Amino acid sequence: MTRAPISNSPSPEPQFTPRGITPTEEQRDIQTCRARHVIAMANAGAAKTTTLALRIAESITRGVWPESIVALTFSGEAARVLKERLIEIGLDEKVVRRIRCETFDKFAQQVLRDFEGGQAPILDSYDAVAPHVRAAVTELKAQNVLRRTPRELSLPEHNEQIFEFLTIARQLKARLVKPQLEDGESFEEHAESLNLPVSIFLLFCQLEKDRAGYGDEPLWRAEFDATYDLACLLASEDCQIRPPLFRIVIVDELQDMNPASYAVLEYLLTQGKSFFTGAGDFDQVIHRWAGADVNFIRTRFAQGWQSVETRPLTQTYRHGPIMALATAALKNKEVVSGRNHETRILVESYADQRAAAERVAANVLDWKTRGGHLDACAIILRAPYQSILIENALLEAGIGWRVEGLESYLLRSEILMLRGVIAFALNDYESIPGVEKRLKVLQALLLWQQFEWGANRLDDAALKTAAEQPDLFDAFLKGTLLKPQTRADKQAADSTSDQETEADFRFLEKVSALRKSGRHDEANTLANLRRLDAETIDETPVQRGARMRLEQTLAMLREAPPDEPAWSVLERAVDMLALKKVARQIFIAPSTAVMVARSIDGFIDGSRRNNLSLRDFAIWLRKAEVKALKLRASNTVLLCTVEAAKGQEFESVMLPCLEVGTFPLSGSDPAEESNRFYVALTRARDELTLYIPDNPARVSPYVKDMNVDRAISRGRLQIDIQFG
Ligand SMILES: Nc1ncnc2c1ncn2[C@@H]1O[C@H](COP(=O)(O)OP(=O)(O)OP(=O)(O)O)[C@@H](O)[C@H]1O
Q: Looking at the record, which segments are called Disordered (predicted)?
């Protein structure tokens, strides 16, 4: 980033006066700055988003149409927070709705939809993209065999490898790498120039070719593909696409910028001759896997732009000096607070995870007793699996909670599937309340039993009917889950029950027409072939294994002594079903498979409470679910991931499980983990509670780095001196 000196020309007096805050000199300067390009890189809570909102409000007050302003971010959450800040500082909600405020990718999707005249399906997870990767692998292998000298290819087969490939592909797209060769270049040479194995580059090219299809629009887009496609189109020589242009362009979370998003931004700025203001924080990069690159911002961003001014925002207004000192120690940088407030930092030690969860619930109640609002309190987790014990503790304490960035554990597919198994074993289908929930249980069972049903069939009325009626629920077990799949089942895997009935009808008509015209042999052959399809077992070894395991597990559960504790039978069931191994087969991301395994452990651990039998545990689960729903109807505390908390702030923040291996999470990028911790802790306005194990050797190094005691004593001194 080019750093031009701050211009000497004084900024004009602001015309917009915000509600609720008095902008500092620095904020006013950015609000009214005359420079065409203004950039502010600053600490967490240093009012970046607020200042961008002030800049937008100032433009509108000076007569700019809200429709000619676009505010782009890299996460939906950041776009939501920016809109929230615009309203907080006093812009009318109706005016805010007229401003285009969304992620780069949503913006690109809309532009492409208008250009292409339709929306290509969006595949929103790696799991949804994986079948396309497998198809591309098959195609590449087939092509390779036909080569005069086949290459030695090493292509992804297993989920972990496919996940790794998709992550590489995403990074290539962030870098705007095209699936093409330069003139006269070989694939080998090009792959080498990208520092990639040739097999991976070939697969990247093949997948992109498949995605492009033969029409004007691609067959599908994964997350970020719209940004990539738009950037490629804009860079093409015969560029036909004309994205809308805006007078004012705002970008929040600049640290997440990558070359593809930058190409879109540059187009908007050059073609629209727009005024640009951007803000970000180098220490909040937590999406490196998706191509976010601090070096890009530091070295290439704004290169060649005229009239670029970097402006400071030196003080954090979110929290007081104690927190500022603690974050400064953590990140080894200067952090100054402009808030005269003793943000409390509390450190609580725990003996085990259950005790920690109970302390979290007790502290939430205490927060409420001291006059705090539940919805101003957030429990931020490093990983979703950590929610199980906390959800149980909140439930026990009668505290309602809502979730962001994770699903309540009772709704996660691995837990739904286990609940289905319990319901089948006990023949107690009512233990899962509500048709919707039972449908989800059936869908989860199909996923875990590795049925390759298409979306059509999974959402079909027939499955919904099975979820409605107890006898059909049982028939589903016997007639689908425990029955070996046949060739006919496979053929119908993607059709709805209506389509199946229609196919049956057409078949009968055909046979009858043949008979009527005396072609009995043909009619018989057709009928025999159909019978053969219905009788021929056609299941993969994996599917057969899953079916046998389910059968044996149900038998084991039914034969278990009725008073045997649930945790003990469930442990055996999880082993027999080989769930942790199956998780690795089903989920593309290795980290997801690990989380699922931990989630299952947490579920079993949760069943240890009160030593309930399996039947009583099923009853407890049903009651828990009903109670959780009721509690959710009132005020709720937020249970969320760090990613979901980014950009938000809360009066009270609780960070459980700050131990070695959990935060930083083992196997994760250390630099990014440190940033993640920084993001989590800097969400707090008034109170931060850190939960650490009572064994000092197991305490997260980040907590040690914060040097809390020193921050408290120095911070108090600072409050006395600075604010009197
Ligand atoms: N001039 C001011 N006086 C007092 N409080 C302010 C002022 N400007 C902003 N704030 C408050 O400071 C807090 C942090 O602001 P904001 O969310 O804009 O920071 P940020 O830098 O975007 O944070 P993050 O890095 O987490 O995205 C908010 O509560 C906001 O209302």
A: 1-26
Question: Measured in angstroms, how far is the CA atom of residue 285 from the centroid of ligand 1?
Answer: 19
Ligand 1 centroid – CA 46 distance (Å): 6
Q: What whole-number distance in Å separates Cα of residue 409 and Cα of residue 654?
A: 19
Pick the closest to residue 341 from 364, 366, 316 (CA basis).
Answer: 316
- Measured from CB, residues less than 6 Å from any atom of ligand 1 are 21-24, 27, 44-50, 85, 281, 317-318, 647, 649
Residue 722 binned pLDDT confidence (cut-offs 50, 70, 90): confident
> How far is 435 from 273, CA to CA, in rounded Å?
55
DSSP assignments along 526-554, one per residue: HHHHHHHHHHSB---HHHHHHHHHHHHHH
- CA neighbor of 583 nearest in space, from 598, 566, 604, 562: 598
Q: Cα(48) to centroid of ligand 1, in Å? A: 7
Nearest alpha-carbon partner for 567 in 608, 602, 600, 603: 608
Peptide bond into 121 cis (omega under 30): no
**Tokens standing for 40?**
């502010």
Domains 25-119+229-313 and 321-400+634-723 in one fold: yes
ipTM tops 0.95: yes
Most confident of 262-271, 437-446, 624-633: 262-271
State the distance from the centre of ligand 1 to the C-alpha of 439, rounded, in angstroms: 44
Per-residue confidence band for 681, with pLDDT thresholds at 50, 70 and 90: very high
Known binder of ligand: residue 44?
Answer: yes
From 39, 316, 318, the mutation candidate for ligand 1 (largest count of ligand atoms within 8 A of CB) is 318
Residues 403 and 298: their CA atoms lie apart, in Å, by: 35
Given this model, what pLDDT does residue 3 score? 44
Extract the tokens encoding 197.
């194995």
Run of H or E including 72: strand 69-73
> How much is the pTM?
0.87
Token pair in block for residue 640: 């969320």
- Which residues 6+ apart lie within 8 Å of 585 measured at CB? 159, 450, 542
Torsions phi, psi for 188 (to 5 deg): -60, -45
CATH classification of 321-400+634-723, choosing from 2.40.50.100, 2.40.128.270, 1.10.10.10, 3.40.50.300? 3.40.50.300
Q: Where are the domains of the chain?
A: 25-119+229-313, 130-218, 321-400+634-723, 414-611
Please indicate if the annotation marks 45 as binding a ligand: yes
Determine whether the annotation assigns residue 43 to a binding site. yes
Q: How far is CA 15 from the centre of its chain?
A: 40
Q: What is the mean pLDDT of residues 141-162?
A: 90
* CATH number 3.40.50.300 given to 25-119+229-313: yes
CB burial of residue 70 (10 Å; 0-12, 13-18, 19+): buried
Model confidence at 598: pLDDT above 80: yes
Closest CA to 188 of 238, 151, 242: 151
- Least confident segment among 3-12, 30-39, 141-150, 521-530: 3-12
**Look-up: residue for tokens 């021929």?**
536
Convert 339-370 into a string of H (helix), E (strand) and C (coil).
CCCCCEEEEEEECCHHHHHHHHHHHHHHHHHC
Task: Say if residue 48 carries a ligand binding annotation.
Answer: yes
Q: What is the pLDDT of residues 154-190, one digit of tens each?
A: 899 888 889 889 999 999 999 999 999 988 899 999 9
Query: If you write DSSP's letter for every residue of 393-438 in order, what string do you get?
Result: HHHHTT-EEEEESS--GGGSHHHHHHHHHHHHHHT-GGGS-SHHHH
Residue 281 in tokens: 């924080």
Cα–Cα nearest to 250, from 276, 281, 282, 273: 276
pLDDT in tens, 84-99: 999 999 999 999 999 9
Q: What is the CA radius of gyration of the chain?
A: 29
Give me ligand 1 centre to Cα 21, in Å: 10
Chain segment 454-493, per-residue pLDDT in tens: 666 777 777 888 888 877 778 888 888 998 988 888 887 7
